[in-house]
Amino acid sequence: MRRELQGHYVTISTVGEKAQAFVPAPLPPLPPVEWTPELRGKFDLALLALGRLDSVAVLLPDTSLFLYMYIR
């Protein structure tokens, strides 16, 4: 299955610092996603990892400061 690019990068500037932001392609994708058992397994693992990240975010005193340090 061959797809077009899934999005593109644009240069943004915030607080005098330049950064690259990813702009995803519109949904739904063409051709549609084929949910094979292998892909579904990877999707489930990714969803589990997002849940873990969300639960850890509750413990952070300042989430925005953490994200800023991570991006820098």
Explain what this protein looks like in three dimensions.
It contains two helices and two strands; from the N terminus they run ββαα. It is α+β, with helices and mostly antiparallel strands. The chain has one domain (7-71). A hairpin with a 2-residue loop joins strand 1 and strand 2 (17-24). The longest helix is centred in the middle third of the chain and has 21 residues, at 37-57. The model has no long low-confidence stretch (mean pLDDT 85).
Looking at this protein, list some descriptive labels.
alpha+beta, 42% helix, single chain, 72 residues, 2 strands, two-stranded antiparallel sheet, flat
Gist?
This protein has helices spanning 37-57, 63-71; strands at residues 7-14, 17-24. It has 72 residues and is an alpha+beta fold.
Structural class: alpha+beta
Q: Summarize the amount of helix as a percent range.
A: 40-55%
Number of strands: 2
Discrete helix count: 2
Question: Biggest sheet, in brief?
Answer: 2 strands, antiparallel
Strand content: 15-25%
Q: What's the SSE pattern?
A: EEHH
Shape: flat
Unreliable segments of 5+ consecutive residues: none
Domains (count):
1
Strand order of the largest sheet: 1-2
Radius of gyration over C-alpha positions, nearest whole angstrom: 17 Å
